[in-house]
Write a structure and sequence with these properties.
The protein has about 200 residues and is mostly helical. The chain is built from 7 helices and 2 strands. Helix 1 (about 1-35) runs antiparallel to helix 7, helix 4 (about 85-95) packs antiparallel against helix 5 (about 100-110) and helix 4 (about 85-95) crosses helix 6 (about 125-135). It holds the Pfam family Fry_C.
Length: about 200
């Protein structure tokens, strides 16, 4: 009985995984369509700018994580009087390529204003800074968009999901065939009679 429950669980997991794969493929198609629309002259594409900024912010974040002075909080930062002043300071840091300083400031702002525009400590600092930067750059504009990430990574993820889906399907088939074989095997606890 337990093996039947496990088999049913595997089948449901396969169905769920397949739905995830379909959802991801739809997402990839949507991204492809957005790339096609990006050639329209009335749209402003900030994807490259934000992708470069993300890459540099991740590098700065890695440097900060490796330096014990940064992680121990030995750096001194000014305490901001308002969220607007903090945002302006961060934007200046991003503009002047002072990325480590911007990352340290976002940490301070999260402690001053938790769960505000700066997010919480569990949110990705780099993504939060990208959101603030994009929001400021597009203030009062329409038709501006940015896609951060690469098509190559989406293709790799999709391929891996499909491979995993095939493996799950094969395991379920083997488990089903095993179940069929065990139902037809004679029970060794039953003694046989001869004629």
């Amino acid at each position: 009985m337990e093996s039947l429950a496990q088999l049913e669980l595997c089948q449901r997991l396969y169905k769920l995984h397949f739905q995830l794969l379909l959802l991801f493929q739809s997402y990839c198609k949507l991204i492809g369509q957005v790339h096609e629309v990006s050639s329209m002259p009335e749209l402003l594409n900030m994807s490259r700018e934000l992708s470069d900024l993300k890459k540099h912010l991740k590098e700065a974040s890695a440097v900060i994580a490796a330096d014990p002075l940064y992680s121990d909080g030995a750096w001194s930062e000014p305490t901001f009087t308002s969220t607007e002043a903090a945002i302006q300071s961060m934007l200046e840091c991003l503009k002047n390529n002072e990325l480590g300083k911007a990352l340290r400031q976002i940490r301070e702002c999260r402690s001053l204003w938790p769960n505000d525009i700066f997010g919480s400590s569990s949110d990705d600092e780099v993504q939060t800074l990208l959101n603030i930067y994009f929001r400021h750059q597009t203030l009062g504009q329409t038709g501006t968009y940015a896609l951060v990430g690469s098509n190559q990574s989406l293709t790799e993820i999709c391929t891996k999901l499909m491979e995993l889906n095939m493996e799950i399907r094969d395991m379920i088939r083997r488990a089903q065939s095993y179940r069929v074989l065990t139902t037809f095997l004679p029970d060794s606890s039953v003694s046989g009679t001869s004629l």
